[in-house]
């Protein structure tokens, strides 16, 4: 653990910043927040940020078009900072860098992260990696642009200060960022709430076809590849569906499956109470948080659901 990031920047001339596969708001916000902070305060340092292609809704984040979606095999940096990445296999485009960097720092908030870098700064109590990162930076060196990125990360991982991961410290951090003049209404509207017509259609369809299991304490929604093809959309357009499933009255756990390739499903889980979904995801090689976790599973949807509900039921009935 360190007090401030500056402690590891001594003698460092080049830094690579990287996030996780299929980057979400917190991943984009924390990576871009750090990128802008380093570019602005350490102009002589070579700073690069690696992110898989980000959703258009994040286009307002300054310099996001500079994010690199590919990494050269022989790229070498003094320091690699990975943000919001809970396990090695989830490092996105810059996975190859970890082996030959001189030093590496992991900044994260996933309870399932066992520490994947030389230095690990992991706070599972924090709402978001963006909140963890804020405390490693010096407030007076944070620009409005950097604040916009970090604010984005916090609102995405807290569902705009709703989820239980939100703490008084989250609010204090958001307040500090708000003091930088971030256009919070626009950020929340455009990056979090607004959906395209097609996104609303696929969400509506998934909700209509959802099924209730375990005495209506578990809801399951599924999107097959043929539906993605039909609507001409990508996996990143499915954001928010699992949260809407979870909003169903009486439901403890929402499970959302979407087909990555034939018989391979990405599983997204959310729980409102009683169930620790990170433990269930971990059984199937995934991870995440108590209230939001995921994994990838093989088989027919029926088999995947059966495997998951076995563990969900154990927690609901207190067997485990
Ligand atoms: P989502 O359902 O939004 O994709 O992910 C919810 C949370 O679970 C995120 O914090 C994410 O990092 C974590 N998560 C999702 N899928 C996986 C996975 O396959 N492996 C691990 N380790 N974590 C995951
Ligand atoms: Mn996060």
Strand content: 15-25%
Which topology of the largest domain does CATH recognise? inorganic pyrophosphatase (n-terminal core)
Major β-sheet annotation: 6 strands, mixed
What small ligands are held by the chains?
A: guanosine-5'-monophosphate, manganese (II) ion
Helix content estimate = 25-40%
Give the overall form.
Answer: globular
Query: What is the residue-mean pLDDT, rounded to a whole number?
Result: 96
Structural class: alpha/beta
User: What would you say the CATH architecture of the largest domain is?
Assistant: Alpha-Beta Complex
Provide the gyration radius in Å. 19 Å
Helix and strand pattern: EHEEHEEHHHHHEEHHEEHEEH
CATH level 1 name of the largest domain: Alpha Beta
* Separation, N- and C-terminal Cα atoms: 33 Å
How many helices in DSSP terms? Answer: 11
Which sequence of strands runs across the widest sheet?
6-7-8-9-11-10
């Amino acid at each position: 653990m360190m007090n401030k990031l500056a402690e590891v920047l001594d003698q460092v001339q080049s830094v690579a910043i990287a996030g996780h596969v299929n980057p979400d708001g917190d991943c984009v916000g924390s990576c871009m927040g750090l990128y802008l902070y380093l570019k602005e305060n350490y102009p002589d340092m070579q700073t690069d940020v690696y992110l898989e292609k980000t959703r258009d809704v994040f286009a307002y984040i300054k310099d996001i078009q500079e994010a690199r979606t590919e990494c050269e095999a022989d790229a070498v940096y003094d320091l690699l900072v990975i943000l919001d990445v809970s396990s090695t296999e989830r490092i996105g485009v810059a996975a190859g860098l970890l082996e030959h960097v001189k030093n590496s720092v992991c900044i994260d908030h996933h309870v399932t992260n066992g520490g994947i870098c030389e230095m690990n700064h992991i706070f599972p109590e924090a709402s978001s990696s963006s909140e963890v990162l804020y405390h490693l930076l010096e407030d007076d060196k944070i620009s409005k642009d950097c604040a916009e990125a970090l604010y984005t990360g916090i609102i995405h991982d807290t569902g705009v200060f709703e989820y239980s991961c939100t703490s008084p410290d989250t609010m204090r951090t958001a307040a500090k960022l708000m003091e930088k003049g971030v256009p919070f209404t626009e950020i929340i509207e455009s990056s979090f709430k607004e959906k395209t017509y097609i996104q609303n259609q696929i969400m509506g369809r998934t909700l209509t076809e959802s099924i209730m299991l375990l005495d209506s304490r578990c809801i399951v929604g599924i999107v097959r590849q043929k539906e993605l093809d039909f609507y001409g959309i990508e996996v990143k357009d499915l954001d928010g569906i699992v949260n809407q499933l979870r909003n169903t009255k009486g439901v403890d756990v929402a499970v959302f499956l979407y087909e990555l390739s034939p018989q391979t499903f990405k599983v997204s889980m959310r729980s409102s109470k009683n169930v620790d979904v990170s433990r269930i995801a971990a059984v199937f090689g995934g991870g995440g948080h108590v209230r939001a976790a995921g994994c990838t599973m093989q088989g027919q949807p029926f088999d995947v659901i059966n495997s998951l509900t076995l563990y969900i039921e154990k927690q609901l009935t207190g067997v485990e």
